[in-house]
Amino acid sequence: MSQAPRIQPVQEPYSEDVATMLAKWMPPGAEAEPLRLFRTLAVHEQLASRMRPLGAGILGSHALVEPLLREVMIARTCALTGAAYEWGVHAVAFGRPLGLGDEQLRSTVHGGPDDACWDQREAAVMRLADELHHTSTIGARLWGQLGRLFDDAEVLELIVTCGYYHVIAYVCNGAAVQPEEWAEPFPPSGP
Questions:
Q1: pTM value > 0.85
Q2: What is the Cα–Cα distance from 187 to 95, expressed in whole angstroms?
Q3: How much is the pLDDT for 56?
Q4: Cα 43 vs. chain centroid, distance in angstroms?
Q5: DSSP secondary structure string, 142-163?
Q6: Other CB atoms within 10 Å distance of the CB of residue 44
Q7: Which of 32, 41, 58, 65 is packed most tightly, with the most Cβ within 10 A?
Q8: How many CB atoms lie within 10 A of CB 145?
Q9: Cα(10)–Cα(180) distance, rounded to whole angstroms?
């Protein structure tokens, strides 16, 4: 941990309201301490309570986008924004369990959509993350490709996922949320 957090995460003992809120942010039955990101957001309970439903909806069972594609979007977005904290949490908690391997995870940080490790849909999600990040829009060529690979509701969900994780990146980076001990760091560049 190189830089001290700019906003100290709430610490135990938690008030009853904070404990209830943190339990909602964590997976059901989780025995681990609530993530530093969640404890940082708990500094502003009302804001955290408004952010949670969208995040839960993106990660939940009612989402339309298949989980692996969602994680490609999240990993690429976190890499583009330099959000090593969130990238590392998702790599361990979601990406690897869903099948993202070393080459794919490295590509989200140091590669691009044309890397051989991506299938057509995964590459399109990488391109979408890139275009939204760099231009805040979607060019006609990519829009056409997305229309052939996804329905409108899935495209909308991918756009919202990208935007939500930009917000999360801003919180992680702006507040200097410290990495979780168990999370992965960004992979080194090179083979």
A1: yes
A2: 14
A3: 94
A4: 21
A5: HHHHHHHHS-HHHHHHHHHHHH
A6: 12
A7: 41
A8: 18
A9: 15
- Among 33, 15, 187, CA closest to 101: 187
Distant-in-sequence, close-in-space partners of 17: CB < 8 Å, separation ≥ 6: 45
Domains identified in the chain and CATH numbers: 16-50 (no CATH), 67-174 (1.20.1290.10)
Instruction: Find all residues with CB under 8 Å of 65, minimum gap 6, and list them.
Output: 73, 150, 154, 157, 158, 161
- For residues 43 and 63, what is the distance between their CA atoms, to the nearest angstrom? 28
Is 60:161 a contact under the CB 8 Å cutoff? no
pLDDT at site 28: 80
Neighbours of 67 (CB within 10 A): 15
Report the alpha-carbon distance of residue 41 to residue 50 in Å, rounded. 11
Average pLDDT over residues 89-108: 97
